[in-house]
């Protein structure tokens, strides 16, 4: 008993001594103990415990370089790239003699495409060791990325014979020679790498990429066959084979190769996502969904699979399912980037562009090297009519990933909407290089050629498209516009006849054919339109064209009847309201129209047809202030209602101190909804004219006149834009050509006065 008490007393004494020693030890000793314990945990493969100890050491001494270095390596092993980067850069700055920290910092900067910072760390290494193999290899790689193969070659020369003893360096040497167009030497270097390291898959892959860049079909096939024989259990072999089969258009073999990649490597979820993407891009959405559902069973907690399935639901129009799955992902992992991106897309789809933009802006800050948020940010700005911002964000997306067709395609569309035809053609061409099968992009290119008056190029391209996809109305119409521009009117007429046989009543084709075939012949034009109406009696736009012709013949009651039918067939048809209001005013029946529409609005306060009719009658009667209020009320009910946006844009732009920025936003909203509507093009042109951006105004007016040849109001607007662009003689000639006819239009006296100003050399812009 006494012995036991003695032992307890001794234990208490020793514990107290240890506690005193611990409390008296220096911060230097404490941090060292944390660091040494961390190293022990690293040896026993306990990374989480090691990370805690290293953080404790760094908390004591924030400038503990070795601890930061080890912590950076652990983060790297754990896949935490951002924290690894932060710690390794800090370690390299704190200890310039830790060349490995500097090398890893340089590598990570290079991965982030920050070649300037990467080079600083490489130079820091070479100052201490001018023959450092890895630093020189990284410098050569950096110079290759910067498009300087000659400098890269000189850097490799500094390594001397070491290059020929290393498969990795021979591989790099091959890429350097290939970039410098020394193709024989490049091939030899790749083959040397394979000879030196025959079991290294990367060397075969580099050789394959070289042959693909040379479009050397025979050697591509031989190399892929070698890979299939030598590396049958490597999933990359089957992914490369899938790429080959896909390029050949062999869907079955592509699918089989992708499934083989999953079979040999079932634990890698990315292969499942690749298969799903293949199905999606092939249009087999049901197969894509099945592939993702199967992946969900094998990887139930994988957020990437869940996010891709939610995205697929969204793209299929299954918005409820997409929303539910997105909510579940973000509840489990609030920072999941793909789900946050999809939430931004959902907001944009629901009309909440402002909220979408806020979320996308945050994503671009958090993931500066991820192109997708920049793309959708550009799309969101495009949807709001903020073209400068749209172009900027799409350009950012392309800088990050220049090999994504949809980025170039949307930028081409933005440029096209602004009348930047040369830039639109450049981006459409880039998109086609990436995805040569995209008919949508090819059509954009054709439209850019037509808009840029490169009619021969347009005809050549659109003719090829018409041969590959016969009876496509959009292709045929744009080809007809190309023929009109090239003054091949008979060919254009013939093509339009074929188009109307395929698509009876297509209003743009009808208008274009009337302008070509019936100039100055309203009776012939009216008979032609009635024939088209008989074939397509439900076409609101044809009744509008008929009403316009009847009005020109002073057949007002018949014109009103046609307009009434147009409104019944399509209550959203803006021109029906405007034309009816203008004609009633001309007939002295404005009060009757106002009374009718006010009665409708009293009964149904949110009736868009009633509000639209009332606003247009007020606008025609000259009460523009009240008209604007009703247009604004319509847009409060339906923010993307293009007819109200178009008319309001015109009224705002026509005010002496109108908000031209708001007018542009509204006009672009209407333009996006109806990109081929010539009257909306006229409004957008008028806004550009008032903003003194005469070249863009000219583009829009000319686009409108392609479909509405010699339309008086648009022609007058074009003449004013020519004058503003210091082309007074061209403006005067244009005015003289159509004012000499007997055509009447509301601005005729104004146009005559303007012509007199031009002729006397005193034009007011």
From TrEMBL:
Signal peptide: 1-27
This protein's record includes keyword Signal: yes
Species assigned in the record: Desulfofustis glycolicus DSM 9705
A Pfam entry, by short name: TPR_8
Alphabetized PROSITE patterns for the sequence: PROKAR_LIPOPROTEIN (PS51257), TPR (PS50005)
Keyword Phosphoprotein belongs to the record: no
Name of the protein in question: Lipopolysaccharide biosynthesis regulator YciM, contains six TPR domains and a predicted metal-binding C-terminal domain
Repeat (TPR) residue spans along the chain: 65-98, 167-200, 235-268, 371-404, 405-438, 439-472, 540-573
Keywords recorded for this protein, A-Z: Repeat, Signal, TPR repeat
SMART domains referenced in this protein's UniProt entry, alphabetically: TPR
């Amino acid at each position: 008993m006494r012995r036991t008490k003695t032992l307890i007393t001794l234990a208490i004494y020793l514990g107290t001594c240890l506690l005193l020693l611990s409390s008296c030890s220096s911060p230097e000793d404490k941090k060292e103990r944390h660091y040494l314990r961390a190293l022990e945990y690293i040896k026993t493969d306990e990374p989480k415990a090691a990370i805690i100890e290293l953080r404790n050491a760094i908390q004591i001494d924030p400038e503990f370089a070795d601890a930061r270095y080890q912590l950076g390596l652990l983060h790297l092993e754990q896949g935490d790239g951002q924290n690894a980067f932060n710690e390794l850069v800090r370690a390299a700055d704190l200890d310039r003699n830790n060349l490995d920290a500097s090398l890893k910092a340089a590598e990570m900067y290079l991965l982030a495409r920050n070649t300037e910072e990467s080079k600083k760390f490489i130079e820091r290494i070479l100052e201490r060791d001018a023959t450092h193999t890895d630093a020189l290899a990284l410098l050569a790689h950096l110079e290759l990325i910067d498009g300087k193969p000659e400098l890269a070659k000189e850097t490799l020369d500094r390594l001397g014979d070491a290059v020929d003893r290393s498969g990795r360096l021979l591989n790099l040497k091959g890429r350097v020679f290939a970039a410098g167009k020394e193709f024989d030497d490049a091939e030899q270097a790749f083959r040397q790498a394979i000879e030196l390291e025959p079991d290294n898959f990367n060397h075969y892959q580099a050789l394959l990429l070289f042959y693909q860049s040379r479009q050397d079909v025979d050697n591509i096939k031989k190399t892929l066959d070698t890979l299939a024989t030598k590396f049958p259990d490597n999933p990359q072999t089957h992914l490369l084979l899938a790429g080959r089969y896909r390029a050949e258009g062999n869907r079955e073999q592509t699918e089989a190769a992708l499934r083989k990649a999953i079979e040999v490597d079932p634990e890698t979820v990315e292969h499942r996502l690749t298969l799903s993407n293949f199905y999606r891009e092939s249009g087999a959405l049901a197969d894509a969904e099945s592939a993702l559902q199967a992946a969900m069973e094998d990887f139930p907690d994988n957020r990437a699979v869940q996010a891709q399935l939610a995205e697929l639901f969204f793209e299929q129009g299954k918005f409820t399912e997409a929303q539910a799955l997105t909510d579940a992902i973000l509840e489990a992992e609030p920072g999941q980037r793909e789900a946050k991106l999809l939430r931004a897309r959902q907001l944009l789809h629901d009309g909440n562009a402002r909220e979408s933009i806020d979320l996308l802006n945050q994503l671009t800050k958090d993931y500066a090297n991820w192109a997708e948020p920049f793309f959708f940010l550009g799309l969101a700005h495009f949807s709001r009519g903020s073209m400068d911002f749209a172009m900027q964000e799409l350009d950012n997306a392309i800088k990050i990933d220049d090999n994504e067709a949809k980025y170039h395609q949307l930028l081409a569309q933005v440029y096209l909407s602004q009348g930047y035809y040369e830039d639109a053609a450049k981006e459409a061409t880039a998109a086609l290089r990436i995805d040569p099968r995209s008919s949508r992009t090819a059509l954009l290119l054709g439209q850019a050629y037509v808009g840029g008056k490169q009619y021969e190029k347009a005809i050549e391209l659109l003719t090829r498209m018409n041969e590959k996809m016969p009876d496509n109305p959009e292709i045929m119409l744009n080809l007809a516009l190309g023929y009109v521009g090239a003054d091949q009117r008979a060919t254009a007429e013939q093509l339009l006849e074929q188009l109307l046989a395929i698509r009876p009543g297509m209003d743009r084709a009808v208008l274009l054919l009337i302008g070509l075939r019936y100039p100055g012949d309203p009776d012939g034009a009216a008979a032609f339109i009635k024939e088209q109406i008989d074939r397509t009696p439900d076409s609101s736009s044809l009744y509008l064209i008929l009403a316009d012709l009847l009005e020109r013949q002073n057949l007002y009651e018949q014109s009103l009847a046609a307009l009434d039918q147009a409104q019944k067939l399509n209550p959203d048809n803006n021109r029906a309201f405007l034309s009816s209001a203008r004609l009633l005013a001309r007939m002295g029946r404005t009060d009757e129209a106002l009374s009718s529409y006010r009665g409708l609005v009293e009964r149904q306060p949110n009736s868009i047809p009633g509000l639209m009719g009332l606003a247009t009658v007020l606008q025609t009667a000259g009460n523009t202030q009240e008209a604007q209020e009703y247009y604004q009320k319509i847009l409060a009910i339906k923010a993307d209602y293009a007819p109200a946006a178009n008319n309001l844009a015109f009224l705002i732009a026509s005010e002496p101190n109108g908000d031209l920025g708001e007018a542009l936003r509204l006009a672009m909203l209407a333009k996006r909804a109806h990109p081929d509507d010539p009257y909306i093009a006229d409004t957008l042109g008028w806004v550009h004219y008032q903003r003194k951006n005469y070249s863009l105004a000219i583009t829009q007016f000319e686009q409108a006149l392609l479909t509405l040849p010699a339309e008086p109001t648009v022609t007058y607007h074009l003449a004013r834009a020519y004058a503003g662009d210091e082309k007074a003689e061209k403006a005067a000639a244009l005015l003289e050509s159509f004012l000499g006819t007997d055509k009447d239009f509301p601005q005729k006296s104004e146009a005559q006065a303007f012509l007199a100003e031009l002729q006397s050399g005193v034009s007011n812009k």
